[in-house]
Amino acid sequence: MKLINRAKFSATALTLAAWLLVPAGFVASAPAYAKTSAATRPAVLTASAVAVADKYSADAAAQIFKEGGNAVDAAVAIAFTLAVTYPEAGNIGGGGFMTLYMDGKPYFIDYRERAPLSATKNMFLDSEGNVIKGKSLYGGFAAGVPGTVAGMWEAQSRFGKLKWKQVLAPAVRYARDGFIVDEQLARRRAEASKEFDGKTNFDTYFGEMKEGVNFKQPDLAAVLTRISNQGAKDFYDGKTADLIAASMQDGSGLITKADLQQYKAVWREPILADWNGYRIITAPPPSSGGIGLVQLLKMKADLAPAFKGVTLNSPQYVHLIAEIEKRVFADRAQYLGDPDFYKVPVAQLTNDAYIAKRAAEVNLTTPTPTADVKPGLGTSMPEKAETTHFSVVDKWGNAVSNTYTINGYFGSGVVAKGTGIVLNDEMDDFSAKPGVANMFGVVGSDANSIEPKKRPLSSMTPTILTQDGKVALVIGTPGGSRIFTSIFQVINNLYDFKLPLAQAVGEMRFHHQLLPADTIFWEPYKPIDGELAKQIEAKGYVLKGQGFSGDIQAIKIDGKTPDAVSDPRGRGVARIIQ
């Protein structure tokens, strides 16, 4: 079908600009937002649903729904619970993005971390202008100013139905009373301990975490109790802010009390686009993911004749997808950054004519030479499962798609003393030096260079699809630069190949990102091997394994019935809640 240009934002969505100047989290009482009225309406779905990263957060959501909460109440409870029970990625020491569909209207809140006030463009370079290995990954200098608490406060204050203390209660309980550590978390903790050995205070807080043992976090419980009582004010201008700043004062990091006091979560216009009869609601800059996802979906649609009769995950399918992804990542490196510092050409990048032009460049038989797809060179680095995502739908038809991050497993490895808060290593998502790859092997330009208060470019892509004004799909995943390519493949599996949700999520996933040249990354869950590998290599590709390929959390709604699936690659839980 013919696709229209990126849809204009609704008048209601445009009113979000009015919230841009509202500071996040400086009063204990809720801001004077008008609460959504949806929760007072009759239910429109047979049940609520969640797809989350672990069972504890699923239980928290079930409790919130039982108490009469809506999708935002549940989402905030999930986010704080994961900060306790999923410490390798769940967080209050990081930041992220939330895409919302409330009362039939789309919203987006950016609570991404910011560079500290004393950050400088060359802070990770030596005297000869070379990147200092590891400085943007380990220790306090790697940490950006956290935004999660501000983001959750803003979302719940504006749209939640329950009291703030109600939604934080599950997280406080898990921190105070403990939770049982499973095998995956214990293994990731052990790996992180080796990685951070001698570099940070990680083992002081997590050294005793073992599989099957009840793990309590009294310092974090105290922080969460204060946040429960005082709102975001405690984190950004109270005792917790003082403790975080004090942890940096010995020269081990840059975050100050002033950094925390000046942090703001920002309501932005989501990217809206029409595709295949659906409205896509997804993440705008400083995420690259929303633009990338729209480009991928529309470019594939423009190439429909080339895909006709091509079997899912066949050598030709892999080749055509790689050709599309190659061009999307060239655009990502050149054009994307924090829109508060750099004018990102969103409309041009998502314009149908531009995307059709890019699609026409695709070589249908062999890989296009990398030198012919600008910009330049880079190297591949190991991929990490640094992020976590959760999807929520309530019985009133509201939806939340939330992705948040501390970057590497357990972030920078620094735990702010007296808090139990794991601080992120998000400064690595900036371009430490244009043309030099970060931990995900992705290069960037001056648009993503380090500046005080700037948000680093991200691939996080919390996404909602609607049809005829009703939620059809809520989806997202962790995975660094693999995020939006993974979501793209699952959406293809669902809507182009008509697979059931569980099968669509469980199918093989692969990834190409322009650099290294003509390299297809495969996943251990369903590796590319045997005859398939030989045929792909015969087309001119190099195959390389990657350690992680995402943790999709998805909810699909057919009519009034939700179906939820948590990726079999992780320890997540999908639950339908009556």
Protein architecture, described:
With 578 residues, this protein is of the alpha+beta class. The chain has 19 helices and 20 strands. A seven-stranded antiparallel beta sheet has the order 6-3-2-10-9-1-20, with helices on one face. The chain has a six-stranded antiparallel beta sheet with strand order 7-8-13-14-18-19. A three-stranded mixed beta sheet has the order 15-16-17, with helices on one face. The longest helix has 21 residues. It is globular, with a radius of gyration of 22 Å.
Care to give the gist of this entry?
The protein is built from 19 helices and 20 strands.
The biggest beta sheet is recorded as:
7 strands, antiparallel
Query: What is the CA-CA span between the terminal residues?
Result: 38 Å
What is the helical fraction, as a range of percent? 25-40%
Strand tally: 20
Strand order in the largest sheet: 6-3-2-10-9-1-20
CA radius of gyration is 22 Å
Which descriptor suits the 3D outline?
globular
Beta fraction of the residues? 15-25%
Low-confidence stretches: 1-31, 375-384
Defining key terms:
578 residues; alpha+beta; seven-stranded antiparallel β-sheet; six-stranded antiparallel β-sheet; 33% helix; globular; disordered N terminus
Q: How is the topology of this model organized?
A:
Elements (H helix, E strand, L loop, with lengths): L10 H4 L33 E5 L2 H12 L4 H15 L9 E8 L2 E7 L36 H12 L4 H14 L1 E2 L2 H14 L5 H5 L7 E2 L2 H13 L2 H5 L1 H10 L8 H6 L3 E3 L2 E5 L2 E5 L6 H14 L1 H4 L7 H21 L10 H4 L2 H9 L26 E7 L5 E7 L9 E2 L4 E2 L40 E5 L2 E7 L6 H14 L4 H6 L3 E2 L7 E4 L7 H9 L3 E4 L7 E6 L2 E6 L6 E5 L1
Parallel strand pairs: 16-17
Antiparallel strand pairs: 1-9, 1-20, 2-3, 2-10, 3-6, 4-5, 7-8, 8-13, 9-10, 11-12, 13-14, 14-18, 15-16, 18-19
Helix pairs in contact: 2-3, 2-5, 3-4, 3-5, 5-8, 12-14, 12-16, 12-17, 14-19
